[in-house]
Each structure stands twice: as C-alpha cells, then as structure tokens.
C-alpha cells in the first residue's frame, strides 16, 4: 500500500486511442477504503469522484521528505562528476541520488565518503583502460575471433562426401 500523502498518477480509464494520455494526474493519496482502494485528491484538494484500485495507480513521489536521507544526515551518492585540487587533497563534485538540480551538487573530500567505491569508479571512468584491471578484448563480444578458412570448410565437406560414397559402395557390395 502506498503511504498517505504520496503523489500518484492514475490510469486513464477513458482512453480511446493510443494517442490519448495513459495516465492522468497528479493526485495525492488522502486515505483508503475498506476494500483497499485509494481516496485521492487533485491539486486543488478536491476529492476524486471515484475510488481507485491499486493496479490503476503509479507512484511518482513518496510522502517521505526524501527517501535518500538516512539517519544522521547521510545521503546516497549517484555519481562523482569532477574533481579539483592536488593528489593529496582532492575534492570531488558529487551528484546526489534524487537531487537532479545542479545547484544541489556539492564538493566533498575523500574522508566525507563512507566508502571509496564511488571514488574508484570515478577514476576508472576518468582513466579509461589505464587501470589495474585486465584490458578489454579487441572485439565487441570480448572474444578473439579466428579468420575464416575456406579450405577447412571445403575439406570438411569433401570428407562428408567421400564418407557417404563409401557407405553407398558398401551397400552395393552387399
């Protein structure tokens, strides 16, 4: 069940063609009915004229202030975008998960991170294949392809033909 206060979209039950909108809304969940349908309100806080079952609802924003905020003001890193400073005191420009505005990007030192995973990923992206990991193979599917050899195929076919001829000769001799 979605929490009360969440923003949702609902399936457009009046849709006539594929050009019509699939969802209408947004709406806010105000409550539940005894059969577990949702009571919704629009932007002006007017009640929707019908109750909406769960399968017709698509959650677009939870009622929680932020799903990314953990106890003691910890936030989840989506990616590190850039760095500045020298090797001893690098600072990293962090894109926080759920905060897509560039004004929300912040500069953080390596000691501010709980894990060095995102820093390592950043440097791997930045340096390309100059990392300690094994280099990628030369082909797209990561295998080394052999060049085609027509002689091998023709010899194989010749072998099949001679084998079938021997079998026919053996049958004729019996």
TrEMBL record:
This is Chromo domain-containing protein. InterPro entries: Chromo-like_dom_sf, Chromo/chromo_shadow_dom, Chromo_domain. It comes from the Eukaryota. Residues 75-134 form the Chromo domain.
């Amino acid at each position: 069940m979605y929490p009360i206060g969440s923003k949702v979209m609902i399936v457009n039950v009046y849709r006539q063609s594929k050009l019509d909108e699939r969802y209408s809304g947004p709406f806010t969940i105000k409550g539940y009915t005894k059969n577990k349908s949702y009571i919704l309100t629009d932007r002006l806080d007017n009640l929707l004229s019908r109750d909406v079952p769960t399968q017709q609802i698509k959650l677009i924003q939870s009622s929680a202030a932020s799903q990314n905020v953990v106890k003691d003001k910890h936030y989840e890193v989506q990616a590190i975008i850039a760095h500045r400073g020298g090797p001893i005191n690098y600072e990293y420009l962090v894109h926080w998960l759920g905060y897509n505005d560039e004004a929300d990007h912040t500069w953080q030192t390596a000691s501010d991170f709980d894990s060095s995973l995102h820093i390592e990923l950043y440097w791997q992206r930045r340096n390309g294949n100059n990392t300690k990991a094994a280099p990628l193979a030369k082909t797209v599917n990561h295998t080394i392809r052999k060049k085609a050899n027509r002689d091998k195929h023709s010899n194989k076919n010749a072998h099949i033909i001679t084998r079938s001829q021997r079998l026919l000769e053996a049958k004729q001799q019996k």
